[in-house]
TrEMBL record, chains A, B, C, D:
Residues 40-59 bind DNA. PROSITE patterns: HTH_TETR_2 (PS50977). Residues 17-77 form the HTH tetR-type domain. The keyword Acyltransferase does not apply. Keywords: DNA-binding, Repressor, Transcription, Transcription regulation. The lineage of its organism: Bacteria, Pseudomonadati, Pseudomonadota, Betaproteobacteria, Burkholderiales. This is TetR/AcrR family transcriptional regulator. It holds the Pfam family TetR_C_6.
Length: 221, 221, 221, 221
DNA sequence: CATGAATGAGAGTTCATTCAT
DNA sequence: AATGAATGAACTCTCATTCAT
């Protein structure tokens, strides 16, 4: 290192940011493992290697860390969805492929799902939290709804329910399956989600096409 | 009062059965409202109008009430399923109608679903409880799986995944949708479940029928 | 069974006495094992095979059982002592032999000693109990003191302290050694008590004998 | 006060050491008065003027305070014994005098004895505690055994039992006599211990001295 | 900013005791 | 006399939170 860039030592701001980041990370892991209620602030501080006071220097309460996690959750999901949505001019096969890889992500990132359940549960209890949560949730639902709407539009079919409702249902399916996960057993979540998605497409009406055409020739299971 | 229609006073057994029943009822309501972890034994006893000691005269621990609720849950679900399964020789329309009314039940009985989530969450934390829980869960999954298998058999179609897996997926969907419920908004659970079910049927293969036949003429959405 | 001796069934009084006796026995065992404070009335009733109510039909409180045990203790000790004391005209060797067998009793009956400590401890806490206890204790101390006094008198020696005090000291030694007992290790109580007793005799003055005589020829270790 | 030694205020470390010390002191007094089982953590905290939480900031459990007291006990006893043991080249009279003053200490420090009994009792119930306790106990027994062995060696006599066993017996005697203490009555412990010790010396053999010598001319009671 | 001793409320649980049966 | 459900107080222990340092 040259004398002009010596800083092994973090500036005060950097150090503070690090403390905060470590607390958030630790909190997420503990919430996933032990649940929100089953995690104490002492736990978070201890596992992160800080004192309880350090926690309170960064967050006003346990709920505030959860909010912070919610924001991270939100950003990650928004990024994911923009990948699915923004790229125009795709064939149905490509969109379905995208959704498939999204489902695979869920499969791998079990922690997010578990955390997501914790968020939802806590929103059901705490009105304060519910308010912030609703925003995130609605945004996500709208985003996923748009992807689904687009898929059906590209296929030239009418979805069997409002795209946003279908989006909510897929998220519900994801959460419900995450709840069923047992360590050691293979997780069929991604596969089942696709099975259901293909089902929806199969049952979707072809509004103004000539009758007798094969309904879904392009999408063999 | 005549000697043959005796005392408003409860006999000892009746009285203790009443106590137990009231504690269980109160516990269920509180678990649904505040979650398992968010409910204290003090709460249960207080709301039921008894002392904490009364609770411990009836249950060895908080987990034991949850087990009791699980058993009730189990019986109710078994009864429901036997209605769906046992009656032979039905048309596909009848079976679908049965499933529809089952979905409607879920719609109305939001508490059961919320409680069911609590059960599943607690099973994920407590090995003791998980053991008992797994039994109930497996039985229920097998039961619902049988109904689904029968439906596809009656329709002469091949289900797009193992019936038991589909059953698990529908339960997941139910739980996930229950999680999303917000007081004041209409609950689309039952409707969405049927949408997905119809989708599965639509995408199911017709193993040995003549090609070109209209795949699902009997089941318009 | 002949018709003239039918009674498989206990009379009410007999049955009650049996209940009482079983409760007392169970209580003693539990007090010895877990201590007075570590034993609950529920424990006593359960282990004896009765309800808690049965306990309260026989005793007003936990302390009353302890009193009952104290009385039993007292009688047993009185009987023991009267054996040591009453038989007149013994040689010193015989008396020492008697004491030796008394010490051996203590060795075997560890339970009595442990219980005795519990009694003494409880007397130190409860004034009510202390009152009754003091009587028993004083009687026992006086009894054992008389034996010791007699022993010295027979030997024609002056005890190095008041016989009653020596009695108390021997009981203290017994209790203290009982406290040190560890399961699995041999218990040297009886032997040590005799070692100390011989010591007292050895150091006892020969008030009016000719000087130069061998002090204790008759009692080699 | 000069500016260099200003603050009446305690530093943080001092203050927390004070808290700990007060809790330990209070615990000791209460254990002595009410017994280990009869003392609640609430009691300790209340009497020390702190909250229960303060207790748990300093000790993990009630047993840990007892361990702390045990350590203090151990140190005090070790110091006492090193006084008795270390100083070489003493006449028998001096050693006996030392033991006499040791016995007098016991006399005055009744609390230690009572506490010692509580320690022993708790060791009999809790395996965890027993482990630590055994170490202390063995050390003390060995130490006192050494003093006794030295005494007999100086006197040129053979002790009537293993010095360690005699040590254990004297500790038992001490404990047992402490148990008998009743407030208001004079406590003969110290005196009786010396009576017994002189007895042991009197009955000790003179292995290789000329026969006919006066056995214990130097030690008149 | 970070510390962690101390707080006070509340958790699950046990217990001696009461009383309708 | 015996039952055991129910009581209410007390127990050990954990927690989110505060605040002097």
């Amino acid at each position: 290192m040259s004398p002009s860039t010596p800083r092994k030592r973090l500036s005060r701001e950097e150090s503070q940011a690090q403390t905060r980041a470590r607390l958030i990370d630790t909190a997420q892991q503990l919430f996933v493992t032990n649940g929100y209620g089953g995690t104490s602030i002492r736990d978070i501080a201890d596992w992160a290697g800080y004192s309880q006071g350090a926690f309170y220097s960064n967050f006003a309460s346990k709920e505030e860390v959860l909010l912070e996690l919610l924001r991270g959750h939100m950003e990650a999901e928004a990024a994911q969805l923009s990948n699915l949505v923004d790229s125009g001019g795709r064939t149905p096969e490509q969109i379905l492929g995208d959704l498939e890889s999204w489902a695979a992500t869920l499969n791998n990132d079990a922690d997010w799902c578990t955390l997501s359940i914790e968020l939802q549960l806590h929103a059901n209890r705490s009105p304060t939290f519910a308010l912030e949560y609703q925003t995130v949730w609605d945004a996500h639902r709208a985003g996923l709804g748009r992807v689904i709407g687009k898929l059906f539009a590209t296929l030239g079919r009418t979805p069997p329910a409002e795209p946003e409702e279908l989006a909510a249902a897929f998220m519900a399916l994801t959460h419900g399956l995450a709840l069923q996960r047992v360590a050691g057993r293979p997780d069929p979540s991604g596969r089942l989600i696709l099975v259901f998605l293909r089902g929806l497409i199969a049952s979707a009406g072809l509004p103004d096409t000539a009758p007798g055409a094969d309904p879904q020739p392009a999408l063999p299971a």
